[in-house]
Amino acid sequence: MIRVNAEIELDEREIQEDFVRASGPGGQNVNKVSTAVQLRFDVARSPSLPEPVRVRLIALAGRRVTQDGVLIIEAERYRSQRRNRDDALERLIELIREACEVDKPRRPTRPTLASKKRRLDSKQRRGETKKLRTVKPGTD
């Protein structure tokens, strides 16, 4: 079991890993060894995730989630397969933790009377400054 937080634990069987050849640095090794990792996690059908977390996770992941609700994380930052696996798993866990946080709802506020007055006063002063810059006809 992979522990995400106090309430959520993922079963290792829910995560599928595919190994592909990575681009970038690695010398001849990059042409021979499949070090990049494609981690797949079925968000839509995962029994480990509560429904509100599932909805927020799909919204957070954006284009990384397929039409079927499968989250795909690609990791090819490192030259070794093990480090890329750890990186992909850590990114998945971090994404799920972020989805667990509920945003505080915004309460609309209104400007105070004093702030409205300050705004209008500054606009008045700015208008006066600009008015002094105008050249009146016949004063050339």
From TrEMBL:
- What is an example of a Pfam family matching this protein? RF-1
Compositional bias per record (Basic and acidic residues), positions renumbered to this chain? 121-131
Q: Which residues form the signal peptide?
A: none
**Which residues lie within the region annotated Disordered?**
103-140
* InterPro entries with a match to the protein in the record: Pep_chain_release_fac_I (IPR000352)
Prokaryotic-type class I peptide chain release factors domain residues: 21-37
The parts of the chain that form a coiled coil are none
Biological-process GO terms, alphabetical: rescue of stalled ribosome
Instruction: Give any GO molecular function from the UniProt entry.
Output: ribosome binding
User: Do you know which NCBIfam families this protein is assigned to?
Assistant: PRK09256.1 (NF006718)
The record's annotation in PANTHER family points to: PEPTIDYL-TRNA HYDROLASE ARFB
According to UniProt, the name of this protein is Peptide chain release factor I
- Top-down, what is the taxonomic lineage of the species of origin? Bacteria, Pseudomonadati, Pseudomonadota, Betaproteobacteria, Nitrosomonadales
